[in-house]
Amino acid sequence: MSTPTYQAPQPHAPSFDPAQIAPRPQTLAATGLPLAFLCDLLEKHLFEGGVLSMRELVIRSALSGRLLEELLGFLRKEGRIEVRAQQGDTPGLGYVLTERGRGSAMASLMVSGYVGPAPVPLERYVETVRMQSVRSRRVTRARMSAAFSDTVLDPAMLDRLGPAMNSGKAIFVYGAPGTGKTYISQRLARLFDDTCLIPHAIAIGDTVVRIFDSSVHRQFQDYSPVVMLTRGHDPRYVLCRRPLVVTGGELTTDMLEVQFDPATRQYRAPLQVKANGGMLILDDLGRQRVAPNIVLNRWILPMEEGIDYLSMNTGQHFRTPFDVILVFSTNLRPSDLVDDAFLRRIGYKIGFHPLDAKQFHLVWQRVCETHGVHYDPALCQHMIDALYTPTGTPLLPCHPRDLIGMALDRNVYLDMRDRLTAEALHWAWDNYFVTTPGRD
Question: With 255 labelled, which of 50, 103, 193, 284 sits at a CA distance of 20 to 30 A?
């Protein structure tokens, strides 16, 4: 398998009409949110923004102008806002809080610090996740071959990974470090080259939980919010690539639960909710700061039922869909991490192994092409015969990238041409391994 840096593909146009899944609400009832809740949200926007025009409120709240007129009219009757002519470069009328409105907004902020687009009710969110489920996507041999056409990978491995992706069950990949588990697991996201709708936030009663995370969710640029407005799409959702969430040794159990920030009084969704509609990879399992059985036991019910059970610091409980392709990846033996009962719950256990000589040559050639240097099969074979075989070092797919890169670093230092030599590669070998296997 070759090992260039992974680049997520640009998704194709949506395979569905976003307006069919999430039409833009034009009435209060269509939002699924109470009048008081939306009025409080508008007050918080005005408290934060000062004098805001109708256009600014539409962008901030993700609500239609028609609906905002109704809400603003109610707030004016309540004496909580007033209309004011705007100054400077923003002509026209603006809305501003009255003294009564400021007091009301401050009280609302003490309850919830969320100030953003109007959330989607939990019930609506559940519906949209199910309508665009990642499990409805089907993987064929042709799709697998296309997705990994630029990767050196045993066809038998593709024929194991493909059915695993169709199963909807968790996938356990294991093998020695450097065998390509993480790289190949992340490349599986290429199979999902379409898009899904991710809400900015969801509302559970009066509590708002943020879901959209710009570090995880990649907006589909060809379908900007402006375009979506003309198509009737609800801008409380963002059209994104199907998410890919990867977490490793930094994982803690609290990252799998709703997180509350007491300073901002805001809730944020856990990793698996952010991953809904896509993939969640737990990498380097067994290296976390918590015992692996605690991490794995957290997934037993979601894996079996397709539902995740969450709670907030207030003790309020709720359920969300668990619509992810879940991948566990470890350098350790699975039997050292979990018992047989848990392993039976995971449909596919797929081992990654070192390369054979032919595959190693192919990876070496790909890396040479990436660096723009001549591929010399005799030089590659020399590395195998002179260094790998005598020391018993396995042929790992990460080695060509690392060794060639180090040899070229040396060339730059010595002001030499970008040409691979046995001398440079031997030097790289001696610097790559802490102690060269088989030598004293």
Answer: 193
pTM for the predicted model, two decimal places: 0.85
**What pairs with residue 319 in β-bridges?**
309
Query: Over 80: is that where the pLDDT of 225 sits?
Result: no
At CA 358, angle to CA 9 and CA 402, rounded to 5?
A: 60
Pairing of strands 207-210, 266-268: parallel
366 and 413 in a single domain? The answer is yes
**304 and 201 part of one domain:** yes
Map residue 166 onto helix, strand or coil: helix
Q: What is the DSSP string of 67-109?
A: HHHHHHHHHHHTTSEEEEE--TT--SEEEEE-HHHHHHHHHHH
Q: Which residue matches tokens 């070192």? A: 354
Could you tell me the end-to-end alpha-carbon distance of the chain, in angstroms, rounded to an integer? 32
Residues 309 and 180 in one domain: yes
Using a pLDDT cut of 70, give the percent of the chain over it. Answer: 91
Query: pLDDT (tens digit, 9 = 90+) per residue, 26-63?
Result: 899 999 999 999 999 999 999 999 999 999 999 999 99
**331 and 275, same structural domain?**
yes
Query: Does an H or E element contain 172, and which?
Result: strand 171-175
Structure tokens at 356: 């054979």
pLDDT the model gives residue 440: 43
157: left (phi over 0), alpha (psi -120 to 50) or beta: alpha
Instruction: Give the HSE-up count for residue 1: Cα atoms under 13 Å, Cβ half-sphere.
Output: 25
What is the C-alpha separation between 76 and 100, in angstroms, rounded?
11
Domain span at residue 80 reads 34-116
User: Is 15 within a domain?
Assistant: no
